[in-house]
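Aim 2, interim progress. The first record below pairs a target sequence with its structure tokens.
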Amino acid sequence: MDHDFWRERWKQNQIGFHQAIYNEYLQQYWDQLNLESGSQVFLPLCGKSLDSLWLRSQGYKVLGVEISELAVKDFFKENNLDAEKSQQGKFSQWKYEDITLLQGDFFDLSASDLKECRAVFDRASLIALPEEMRISYVKHLQKILPKQASILLITLEYDQSEMQGPPFAVLENEVFRHYQQHFSIKVLHSEDFLERAPEFKKKGLTALVEKVYLLNPL
């Protein structure tokens, strides 16, 4: 799985992962991060997520990164936002008021790019990646993330032999393995999700659990 894979998914409009509404868990659990108004929130692999708009409406600044130029363009176009475009290092920066999207490779981000970040919302980043890439993703995120930043993380659990990702299954023990050295980890929500996701039933899944984690820095 490489950059061309995701660019092609966007080009072919194969974006079942995109939510046309604000994420319900974001709205339900965000206040548990106790984040000060005006803080910057990082959305990795953000696509054209509307969650940026919800976070802005709550008084936060948003920084997202996305490999697909089409996704970034669509976000601003579909929401009637007149973004200013500029170059920031290896990234094309698109900015409208308190929303900044960096179009480029997540792995090109540095600590200086995230220096103002105080929280991360990972709805569909970790689960978008196969296992080896997840290891690299977490290592890089922890390398560039300020030590005081918390993470609200959403995962899916299912039998990986029943369906080929993405989205990939990320079990609870893997979350702890990746993050427990630097974060306290709390499961905020666990729900049998299969009946609410008939498209996964059609792909052959017999069980599907969605979990929400709160990760606070140690």
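The second target in this work package is listed in the same format:
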Amino acid sequence: MAVKLRLKRMGAKQKPFYRIVAADSRYPRDGRDIEVVGTYDAVKNPAVVSLDKDKIMKWLNNGAQPTDTVRSILKDNGIMKEYAESKSKKQTKKEK
């Protein structure tokens, strides 16, 4: 099962609100999801983002691939950098 971290559109017409979810890549965009890991409200200025860092790190460590938009949101919040650092620490431990 290929898991992706992606946006799920919620809200009314002309007022989108997004949930960042872990979902099987075969499911439709607004279909079934496995777990909600954050929210993203692009309508407000500046955009409001709330993330559950522990859940996101768990999914990334288990092999979930973020979409381009989610990757940029995670990068802006420093989670991708932290994930890369934790990944490099694991590799150096394995080499020893």
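The chain has one domain: 3-95. This observation will shape the mutagenesis plan for the next reporting period.
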